[in-house]
Amino acid sequence: MIKFILTFLFIMQSNVAGSKENKFTLYTPTGGDFSIPSTEGTFHTRNVRGKNLVLFFGFSRCPDVCPLTLRNLKRMRDSLSEAQRKNLHILFISVDNKRDDVRNLKNYISKFGQGFEAGTDSDEKLNKIMKLFGARFARVTGTAGNIIIDHTTSLFLINSRGEWVDTLRSDASGSEYADSVSTIDQKTKQNRELKRSIEITELGQSKNCDLGSGICSYKHVDHSEYKVRISPVPVKTERNLHVEVDVNSNGLMPVELDFEGIDVNMGLIRPKLLKAGSQKYKSGFSLPVCELKEMRWKVRLILQDPSGALFSVLFHMKSRD
Questions:
Q1: What whole-number distance in Å separates Cα of residue 186 and Cα of residue 87?
Q2: Stretch (H or E) spanning 179
Q3: Contact 277, 5 (CB under 8 A)
């Protein structure tokens, strides 16, 4: 029997699923080459082969996250040796093409010193670039008529071979910045992550529950049981969230959760589950800002058997502003 316990503040028993197993395609952004008009003419990823690249999305009028991240990148770059600095390129891509152009971006990025380049493009081109990395942005008009830009704040680390090998939180510590950048070339993508899409067997789903408000459970026809907890509830955006997975299994191991926005594309949100005891797995994550007061999600628990085959159980969730 396989039993997964993901603890919640209270338990809502799901329906017992039937025996039919479905397939779904798990899409994995793997990075890739792109070009964009920039402060140096035209940036192309192929032109920086042999150097490590840090990619960051934002905009010049960003009030806090963008300038703070760029200052952290400057401090990190200044702490490197001369050889390491020569081997590092930082690209800032503005998602606010209505107000940012190459001219004002050149002035903006110059405040952070050498080694920085900035660029922007049309919404269509930006979305294509961001999709390569599972990133996203949204432009909305506030109640006062002001423009609000919501965007992925992670940093994407690409090694000298052009492989996207790591993702760094914008609020990571200075030592995390330095450690991540100094080890880019020592990292490579896992075999599964090199595949853009994989067909996965869906064991079933728990339809009548909401992970945003309490425990959900799913019982398979082989009597395997899956129970889930995310905390704190109610689940909100821009908030540190936690998931716990207690496991009683003779075959399948939980490896990660995949969050898919139903109402709005929210980019790649796929926290890996780390072992925290003989039968316990944990992870932490946060959801991006959303202009909706309430957001619906599909949340898949990804499981792996000893041969490497993947399976999933589908749960449902609502996040609230």
A1: 14
A2: helix 174-182
A3: no
The length of the chain is 321
- Compute the Cα dihedral for 10, 8, 299, 245 and give only its sign: negative
Task: Tokens 């490590």: give the residue.
Answer: 52
Which residue type does 25 have? Answer: T
Distance CA 126, CA 94 (A): 9
At 186 the three-state DSSP class reads helix
Task: Characterize the bridge pairing of strands 52-58 and 155-158.
Answer: antiparallel
Angle (CA) 197 200 205, round 5°:
125
The structure's pTM equals 0.71
Q: Which residue, chain included where needed, has tokens 């800002």?
A: 289
Q: Summarize the confidence of residues 98-103 as an average pLDDT.
A: 95
pLDDT tens-place string over residues 101-131: 999 999 999 999 888 999 999 999 999 999 9
Please tell me the number of Cα atoms within 13 Å of 226 on its side-chain side: 25
